[in-house]
Amino acid sequence: MNIIKNRYLYFLISLLVIVPGIVFMAIHWVNNPSDGPLALSIDFRGGSLLEVQFSGTLPSINDIQAIYNQYQSTTGQALSDAIIQPLGTDSYSITSKQIDDATKGKIVAAMQSKFGGTVTVLNFTSVSASVGAEVTSAAGWAILAAAIFIILYVWFAFRSVEHPVRYGTAAIIAMFHDIFVVLGVEAMLGYFLHWEADSLFLTALLTVIGFSVHDTIVVFDRIRENANIYRRVDYETLVNHSVVQTLDRSINTQLTVMFTLFALALFGGDTTRHFVIILLAGIFSGTYSSIFNASPILVVWQNREWRTWFRRKTEAQPGTAQ
Amino acid sequence: MSRSRNFWLVVIILLIAFSLWVDLSKNISIADPTNDKLLVNLNTDIRLGLDLRGGLQTLLQADVPNCASVDPNELNVTRQILESRANALGVSEVTMQVAGNCRIVAEFPGINNPEQVVAALQQTGLLEFVDMGSNPVPVGTVIKTDYGQTSATQPAAAGTAQTSTATPNATATAQSAVTATPLANTTPSATTQPSATVYHTVMTGAALDTVSVQTSSVGQYEIAFTLKSNGTQVFSDYTTANVGKYLAIVLDKKVISVPVINSAITGGQGVIQGSFTVDTANALAVQLRYGSLPVPVKVVESETVGPTLGAESVRKSLLAGAIGLTVVILFMGLYYRLPGVLADLALVTYTLISLMLFKVIPIFLTLPGIAGFILSIGMAVDANVLIFERLKEELRSGRSLRQAIDLGWSRAWPSIRDSNSSTLITCLILYIFGNTFGASIVKGFSINLALGVVISLFTAIIVTRTYLHLVLDNLKLDEHPNWFGL
After folding, report:
1. Is B107 helix (H, G, I), strand (E, B) or coil?
2. Where does chain A hold its CATH 3.30.70.3220 domain(s)?
3. Does the beta-carbon distance from B368 to A272 stay under 8 Å?
4. Could A224 and B332 be called an inter-chain contact, meaning their C-beta atoms sit closer than 8 Å?
5. Nearest to A121 among B304, B379, B429 (CB)
6. Is there a contact between A123 and B309 if contact means CB atoms under 8 Å apart?
7. Residue partners of B415: CB distance under 8 A and separation at least 6
8. What is the pLDDT of residues A155-179, one digit of tens each?
């Protein structure tokens, strides 16, 4: 089995997933300049989410908006732009500018008196815009910090082989590959299903980063070991041999994680479904990138192949000029 | 080597026995047989996080222009005051933690009146001077006052409207009518139920200027206070009109002292007397001094989860976890045969130990926490997969079974070590992130994942191997290579 030989095909497959994701992020950014590339939940942009269940008459969306119109946000703004969505058969999810607990109490009381029955608050979340903005920037820093620490660790762990920096860098390139896949999937889900990136999404993204490097290191470890055993074999063969040797393990680990994640996605309820689907996409991407991107990048680097990328050559593959 | 295997076997058996004991019991208490005193009293119920049992979580932030200017000690004092205040409001199991420079995460499980709790918490202070009229209530009574009930009528504002009859510079003493008022001795069980009467609050701790402990002319400890100018006015008007009546000093709705007004206090100074020791006087002075929050706070984030949503999530997550675990166990058994079955046993061991640690540490189970745990089941298997793939390779290259087992473990170790280290690094960064921003979801997830990584290393490397050698010692496995999936 020769995986490394077809490396540019695998790079192309990665691009075919990542580029549409970037397109969807760009579409969202153009449509919502204040939001950035992803549809953000109130966790990041601030606001309030109220989920209420009605046991009496189920009000219409306009009825609920009429109640919201009577109150103001914490900063004294009108709540006329509340987004009201049905949730199941007897509940509504209402996203608005940030309201405090007292205003929420008044709104629920108003619903109760107008529509009768019991109005149950299933969930109420309220985040101020300043905290949201701070969390967003901190998330960026957290990812950057994780990347730097991991690159340093890999560099340290592979100090016995030639060019240890390459291994750290290749692991990080594979990691950013996975970050872009996850962001792209989220952008597409946001576009088609109106999913919003919340703090659970962030947790999923950070987990994917951890797993991505976890997986890559297992493959690199084999290269490290084989480099000491087969000293006369050329680098490309060595890398390919190592990838093939760890293939069973990569697939089996992938499968066991997928089993538990699929169980969570199917039976774990709505609250974690978004989280789990992002994890599924990310973990799959993590395994793919460690086999088909990280290791081939080492070979590309060893051969300094970028020198031939822009030359007119018959065997040049499409998608090489990434 | 055989001796160290026996050692680990004993350790594992003891660990499993202990885990089973903790996992299956809700409370563990061991009494000393000689004097019946409790040696150990451990609540081993599974602690559910807010998202699972329902309740309110708020993120309070210092209401100051610059976060960096907040003194960490003051923030911690604020947290303590908020905590005692929340307890005084009758909310049980409140947890409050300082997060980052200027935030406090407050969690109130299972409350149904979040609006009132949040409103009471945000007030700067809840020290009140309460009009008792001629019928004082005992110290320790939880009373209702009109302060904060209607935000429109602030007691201080109402007081200043009165005409002043004060004689300047005349000092008087409010004699305490009660004995033994140390607050620390007022145990929760001694607290009487709130009475229906709503008392009038004359003024609040916001009017206090300084508080100090001094000794009286007869050598008793007492607490002296001075008032700010508007407080002086209110106090003067009130005491002038109510000589001979009782004035209760109330902290967080609990009466801490009920002195009688001997004469008008017009100089803005007063003394609280009682049979204080130096310690109890200091304790009360601290309570008074910090009755108002050193750092004003505002709610920047608030989340209320209804109990029904939580209960449903628990049920679904447990079901998903059970299904996921079953599929993984089947897969491992079918694919890796005998070692797979042993890895499955190690996985069950892993689950038992994890559950025990969740209960003992204790770790509050949240939804992302459960997700992290279920995910770590997958990771727990990974180390074994790595080892077994190596084991098969070594067997194929013609080594004997025992050699292959030892080589499989030692060769798989560097990759297990390095890959798990990188996951732990990610967990650490997640934890710091979650802790700084009060994002308890992220924090809970990182703790569970890190714990999962550490336990899985132990079960994969020590437990599975011990099981495998145990089987090896008792069965003639060399004759059955297909038991190893070859």
Report:
1. strand
2. 47-127
3. yes
4. no
5. B304
6. yes
7. A217, A218, A221, A222, B386
8. 888 888 888 889 988 998 999 999 9
Contact A207 B119 (CB under 8 A): no
ipTM over 0.90: no
Among A125, A214, A257, whose Cβ lies nearest the Cβ of B423?
Answer: A214
Chain B residues whose beta carbon lies within 8 Å of the beta carbon of residue A124: 114, 302-304
Does residue B449 belong to the interface with chain A, where contact is any CB pair within 8 Å? yes
Residues B368 and B467 in one domain: yes
**Which residue from B308, B335, B415 is facing A218, i.e. has the nearest CB?**
B415
pLDDT digits (tens, 9 = 90+) for B370-385: 767 766 777 777 788 8
Cβ contact A271–B301 (<8 Å) = no
Q: pTM (2 decimals)?
A: 0.70
Kindly state the DSSP code that residue B48 receives in the 8-state scheme: B
Regarding the domain with residue range A4-36+131-309, which homologous superfamily does it belong to in the CATH classification?
A: Multidrug efflux transporter AcrB transmembrane domain (1.20.1640.10)
According to DSSP, the residues that pair with B254 across neighbouring strands are: B142, B251
Fold designation for A47-127:
Alpha-Beta Plaits (3.30.70)
Give the integer Cα–Cα distance in Å for B85 and B121. Answer: 7
Structure-block tokens of residue B73: 């000690």
The number of folded domains in chain B is 3
B451 falls within a domain: yes
